[in-house]
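Lab meeting prep.
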Amino acid sequence: MSAKVKENIFSTIVIEMRNDLELDAIIEDYLLGKLNPQETEAFETLRRNDAAVDHKVVSHKFFLESMEVFAVQSRLKDQLNNIHSEIDVEGLASALRPHPSKVVQLWRKHKSAIAVAASFLVLSLVSVYSIQHNSKQKEQLVLLSNQVNKAIKTQNNLIRKINNTTNTAGKPAVQNSFGGTGFAISTNGYILTNLHVINGADSLYVQNNKGESFKVKSIYTDSQNDIAILKISDKNFSHLSSIPYSIKKTTSSIGETVYTLGYPKDDAVLGEGYVSSKNGFIGDTTQYQVSIPVNPGNSGGPLLDNNGNLVGIISGKPDQTEGAAFAIKSKYILEAMRAIPQDSLGTNKLSASSKKSLLSGLKRIKQIEKLQDYVFMIKVYN
């Protein structure tokens, strides 16, 4: 359309306007910024004085924005198609078919939810693009942003669930029904526990009271006394402070007060009681019988007296007997530690000397505060 025709139209406002097509063309030029200042001013005067023209401008603006959204979606679709064409779907399917692992099962179970979350996220971002310049839709933008955040959280939860079912080698990993407890015997990551806690494990981890997990490996086992020593092999592990407890060298007496800290559930649990017998199951002289309620997750936990001396290791409970458990005597902790090269344990290791325990003289609550940094949950994966 020539400038002369436009000038004629603007000078006569509506009377000399030829048809709606010409008006639509002027509206489009106006919205695209193609009119000169005089034409723009004349047209805006027309909009203010004619509600029908103003309505056409609003409708045409919405039409142009919709076309832009469609163009963005088309480009996105083309990009996704190009990516899809580069993926060897058949090869991927054949690689997964012989391995019906937990990961594959989880994907099959949740793939719809993941696809919906991903699609919703993409479409939501496109919708944000189409409305971000419209001041009247700010409330919709805030609501949509919240929905996008929920979609992201849903995807992250599903991804985390899948990741938690695979070990570092990419193999299916299933945690045993029962884990156990262990405690530090040195500041550089040596952990003592029961052998039966880790038997048959493909992968081992320990978790501290802050919820941090570290990869460990078994470096010593004693099947006769049900003892295992683990070593933290994780670069993220920081050395502990001085071990606060010491090993008791003498035999505990019947009636002596003792306590344990362990992980029969996800957080540490205190158990208190007393030595009820100097011998364990069927007169086993390597163990004490203690009157403390314990559960399978307590196995491998430390047994201490009121002065913070290590009396033994919780090793289990007799079947159908409430309030009684067995503990391997501290003598066998010493024997296990002597089997490890002493220079590898470092200078800050669990001591059996006459040096006073750092827990001695403290109230129980203060003893637990110091002790909990040295007691770990054992996580066993097969």
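Slide two material, second protein:
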Amino acid sequence: MSDTTITALATTLMHTPWAGEPPANGIMPPTHREILVLEISTRGGITGMAYLQPLAGGLATLEACMREMIAPKVLGRDATEVEGIWQSLWKSTYWLGRAGVAVFCLSAVDIALWDIVGKRAGLPLHRLWGKCRDEVPAYGSGCWRGLGRDGMIARARRFTETGFDAVKMQVAHLRPWREDVANVRAMREALGPGVEIMIDVNMGWSADTAIQAGRYFDELDVYWLEEPVVCEDFEGYRRVASALRTRVVGGESHFTRYDLRPFFAVPSSPILQPDPMRGGLTELRKIAAVAETWGLTIAPHLFHELNVHLLASIPNASWLEYMDWNDDLWVEPAIPVSGRLKPPEAPGHGLRFKPEVLRDHRVGGFEAGLERAA
């Protein structure tokens, strides 16, 4: 029996240049990717890994929280106490937490612990949790508004030419909504009726604008309208959903099942998109279970290389969001084939950063161990 006592936590902070053109989405900085890598080591020699990609800065803030509020409460615990550690971190950070930085850090610990448990059991996470399917459908994401109409269509065609039958394009933020309608119409004409088109507003509209634009989208056979309003505006979600035939979906900016509760109380959004950085894999599994009770499906936000394990192990899986912007970071990148992704069979989540990426792009980090804590 391997001793799973947690003896060390270590972080690596990275500024990693974009492998290609930076995302032209009007939201993220164009210079580099910011990533925090967490490694949790056990006395028996098993190490679990997790990572956070905050998208809009905050690495030093995340590290400070990890060092001060998280590491002292994790060292010395048994790594198989995944639920117990989640609850301890949730309660001990409650006054400063319930969302934001504290939950991001909690989530990284949770993901790393599941990696350890899977490695200890010799099982990939989708089998550890009870496999439900062999592969998961994925849509090609990142047809950014800033690419312009022709650029968005060109990126969408790169996906469809490799077998994807669904793509997602961005609206709002950069240009007026009528131009977005024209872009969606051009995308539908370019791709034809056999490809699903998802529309992502990234919280860029009011409910009124979303309804006005959405009535045009209704005529263009759009698969869903995502995050049409700011995440706190649940009444706006309901107004938009009641006014349109197109599905209205969301959830990526909400933290834990508690923040998602209004989606269950009034289930007007048939697909929820929780983010693993906002509660960890433990929380995503709970959200999926509650969602199934209400007849809702799950299409998690980003991080397809992690989320494939979740969707391969639940009955109410919807879509994986395939974003190719991190494929260059992994020893074995998770790339869908013909629009479908098979979960890996390596124990744990199966992800490994390339050693040279960790070495060449490190800008900081810390290590805390039992001896240091003592």
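Talking points for slide two:
The chain has a mean pLDDT of 96.
Residues 126-341 form a domain with the TIM Barrel fold (CATH 3.20.20.120).
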